[in-house]
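tool_log.txt
---
The assistant was asked to compare two proteins side by side. It first ran the structure predictor on the initial sequence, then on the second. Raw inputs and outputs are pasted verbatim so the downstream comparison step can read them without reformatting.
(1)
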Amino acid sequence: MRLKLQKPIILRFWCWYYSGAVKTLINIWKNFLIFIKEYYSIPLLLRTLFYPWRRDITKYGRGFSIKNFLETLSFNLISRGFGLLMRIVAIIVGLICLLGTVILGALALIAWLILPIILLFFIIMGLKLLAG
């Protein structure tokens, strides 16, 4: 029977820290981005940008009356304008959240990568202060 030698635990930790954990962090970041895109329905809002607000439209009545025609037209235009305004606000808020998630995710990834270096720096500085 042959024994399989394993890497020392500290080496396995650093391999995990800079490969497996980084992959997991990137997957979490990607899931946040997908969630925000779906939560704010940005693609759907862009497709329906000029739809009336809550599908609130008035049908033109029977016969032709200039008064009814202008009332219906103005109501439908106001409904579409309000729908446009609300969708643009929702898209802007969603894009701001997406941008914030991109920035915070990048900062988290950078912090994850440099934290061991910072820890080593503080250990060395502490030892110098103890010795000095």
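(2)
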Amino acid sequence: MLEDPSIEALFIGTRHSTHADFTIQALNAGKHVFVEKPMVVTESQLDAVIASYDEANATKPTALMVGLNRRFAPLTIKLKEALNPADALQMIYRVNSGNIPTSTWLHDQDEGGGMLIGEMCHFVDLMQFISGERPVSVYAQSLRVNSHKTTDFDNLSIVVSFDGGSVGTLCYNTVGSSGFPKERLEVYGGGVVGVIDDFKSLEIVKGGKPTRLKTAHQDKGQSREVSETVDAFRQTGQAPIPFADLVAGMRVIFAVRQSALSGQSVALHP
């Protein structure tokens, strides 16, 4: 596939630890890349992907897209349209995720990276998209579960500060109940309140007037993500998510671990 000139793009859906290597091989071969999240599992892998991306784009437009689908969900788009881009936002994202046994490959740091790397990148990316701002600092605390069946770093409270004044708080846990909805995003700013509940309903209160939307089926944006990716690859040679956003989101994830271990806020650098 790397050597076939008729193949213009590769979609990578392998285990997390292989994402960076396959992405680099594809970029070096001049192929557009869609890689499932996470883009990488280590900071050294991130540096290597950045170098390959820059080298490929020095020759011709070469796209790299990561499977961060929630920004493409219909309810996400409607919420963003209701907000004023100039307003700083307070974002609260609660995730009631099911517990995944610590014996699985997802919790192997060299192969899966845990839920912090494998899953929480979704929610950081969505807060970046909603705010339209770049993250500048991170503070995180983990739950002390005291159980060999559950990882502390699967249960985190994360505060991300953004360069436009917005603040995003992610509360991700695996110690709740599957009988409760998985995701809820609340956004406050500029006299507007917006709430997405499990990507099944959206409530917006603007000018004191509530608007409520419900969908027949949960839609987290996967279909629109793929169609927009293919269109962008063909038309512009770029991805629908800016590469800078992809890099910034991964830097947040790595800073979360550093902050949770040190107990200190971590500043992010471009």
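---
observation on (2): The mean pLDDT is 95. Residues 243-262 form the longest helix (20 residues).
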